[in-house]
């Protein structure tokens, strides 16, 4: 199971100097408050949004994911 690393998305956006409003516009949202709900996890990014995120943030789609590894009892 893979989990989206929202902190990576936020940190990368900030590193590149991209505003929430710019991200909202690139993803087709009406305003930055809608984008903020995605970045904070209130809403989930959809698969078709990931290529736009990757292009905007100049990274690979795989960079967005954290692999969850279940710990097993010994």
Lay out the secondary structure:
Elements: E1 2-4, H1 6-15, H2 20-27, H3 32-39, H4 50-57, E2 65-67
Antiparallel strand pairs: 1-2
Question: Keywords for this structure?
Answer:
two-stranded antiparallel sheet; 4 helices; 46% helix; 74 residues; single chain; mainly alpha; 8% strand
Molecular structure report:
The chain has 74 residues and is mainly alpha-helical. The protein has one domain (2-67): lambda repressor-like DNA-binding domains (434 Repressor (Amino-terminal Domain)), CATH 1.10.260.40. Helix content is 46%, strand content 8%. It contains 4 helices and 2 strands; from the N terminus they run βααααβ. It has helices at residues 6-15, 20-27, 32-39, 50-57; strands at residues 2-4, 65-67. The protein has a two-stranded antiparallel sheet with strand order 1-2. Helix 2 packs across helix 3. The mean pLDDT is 91.
């Amino acid at each position: 199971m893979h989990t989206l690393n929202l902190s990576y998305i936020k940190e990368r956006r900030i590193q590149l100097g991209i505003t929430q409003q710019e991200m909202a516009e690139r993803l087709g949202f009406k305003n930055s408050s809608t984008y903020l709900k995605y970045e904070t996890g209130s809403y989930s990014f959809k698969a078709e949004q990931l290529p736009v995120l990757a292009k905007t943030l100049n990274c690979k789609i795989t960079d967005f994911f954290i692999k969850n590894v279940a710990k097993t009892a010994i």
